[in-house]
Amino acid sequence: MTASGERSRIAYYFSATVVVGLASFIFLKIFSLPGGLHYFEGLWRIPWLILLSLFIFFSVRVVNALLFDFLFRLRRGYEAPTLIRNIFTLLAFTILFVLVFNRIYQEINLGGLITTSAIFGVIIGLALQDTLGNFFAGISLHADRPFQVGDVIVVTSNKLTGVVESITWRAIKIRTFQNHIVLVSNSLAAREAIEVSPRDNLNARLVFFSTIYTDSPAKTIHIVREAVRDSDNVSDKITPIVRIRQLGDSSVDWEVKYWLDDYARYNDTDALIRQRVWYALRRNGLTFAFPTRTLYLERAVSPRPVTVEDQIADRLSAVDIFSPLSPDELRQLAKATAGHIFAPGETLIRAGDEGSSMFVVHNGCVAVQIADRGGPRTVAELTEGNFFGEMALFTGEPRTANVVALEETEVLEIGHAAMKHIFQTNPSLAESISWTIAERQAQLAKDSASAQPSIQETAGLLSSIKRFFGLR
Ligand code: CMP
Asked: Where are the beta strands (DSSP E) in 122-211?
């Protein structure tokens, strides 16, 4: 209410009280004249009661205005809640009225009349059921003081948001952000969950935006924070926070958390923040993200799908001793192999065993170990594309070392028959294998202090391989 409106209201109460007081004085004077009518008799008592009631009413309003418009505001700094004022008016008026009534109609017991009347009680109870519910809910709201005039509240059940304008004995008056007035009954407000953003509290808001993945997060944080903290209605008591909310499908998603001086203006401030973010990003070469998808198109180069056999042939082609083989021969050899998988630590070959096949490491890694005084000693580690077990296969002698998987390892086993077939079409293969065997034998002889493996010359090896495989 404006100051002039308040002044005129006070003047109105004051003059009305003076008029009623004056009227009462004249009334009394007329009836107390000698030979005049004897006052407080018969029907004359009714206008007297009305006049006094009016006097009480206006006096109570004047006291109400004095107490709440001046004293309360002076002490607390804000307008007194309407409900408190109404309760005060009601109580003061009722008490004074009963006192005056009892004085005028001494033969009628008004208090007893009200309290002993069952019908009166039922009528009041039924007629004022909702009103009394609202009234008492209003009293409890005032006692709790969960919110005050000027606070922003959200009635969560129906998402109603607005600024509290007043709390009366019946309802809470809310002004929504569309400038509508909505009345929420006190009893509903007492039942519902209500989100309160107090006027004298630093309330926060979140505003979202997204940038592309190539933009630097550190730069984005700095630039956006500086742009936001300068905006109107953003509190300078807490620095705004800019942080990554999530790494989205096609964007880095951000949120800006900022605190407002006046929460009731959050719609305008959110919009201002978004505007500031847009300009800040634009000025600094950062880019807003929009939904994108990266598609990888794969052109089919071969009409035939790649098979496991192709993969094995591919692996065999990387083994140096098989490099002279044609793609067809490699595929033939691949068909003749058997794949085996071993867990880390499993032994694939044990020294001294008979052996009629060799192995190619397809995936993983193995260690070649010989017995030493302190336990097994690793003399070589073989990885993808390396082979082992050829010594026993081509010489017919027992296995010369242990071979142990160092990790999960897949090997391709090539048997005697498959190798014989290869040797028939590629006699030069036997020669390159004999060199490898000779080298490994020499290495074993050097590494092994106790066991003395038989060392043969390459030429001797080659002839024994040929003999073993029935080659000319
Ligand atoms: P074989 O003797 O059949 O069984 C053990 C295998 O270990 C052997 O064949 C070779 O293939 C392999 N081997 C032995 N010594 C070495 C070495 N020094 N370097 C690589 N591999 C070896």
From this structure: 152-155, 160-167, 171-176, 181-185, 194-197, 203-211
pLDDT tens for 66-111 read 888 888 888 877 677 777 777 888 888 888 888 888 887 777 666 6
pLDDT tens-place string over residues 354-409: 999 999 999 999 999 998 887 899 999 999 999 999 999 988 889 999 999 999 99
Q: Are 155 and 165 in contact (CB under 8 A)?
A: no
Beta strand 181-185 pairing with 347-349: unpaired
Give the torsion sign (CA, 47, 52, 57, 58): positive
Residue 365 CA to residue 406 CA, distance in Å, equals 6
Q: Which residues, in sequence order, are CB contacts of 186 under 8 Å at separation 6+?
A: 133, 134, 135, 137, 138, 141, 167, 169, 170, 171, 172
Question: Buried b vs exposed e over 126-155: b needs ≥16 C-beta within 10 Å?
Answer: eeeeeeebbbebbeebbeeeebbbbbbbbb
Does 368 contact ligand 1 (Cβ within 6 A)?
yes
Name the residue among 81, 56, 80 with its Cα closest to residue 70: 80
Look-up: residue for tokens 């004056």? 22
321 lines ligand 1 (CB under 6 A): no
Instruction: Find out whether the beta carbon of 63 lies less than 6 Å from any atom of ligand 1.
Output: no
Cβ(286)–Cβ(252) below 8 Å: no
List the strands of the sheet with 402-405, edge to edge.
347-349, 402-405, 365-372, 375-383
- Which residue's CA is minimally distant from atom 9 of ligand 1? 389
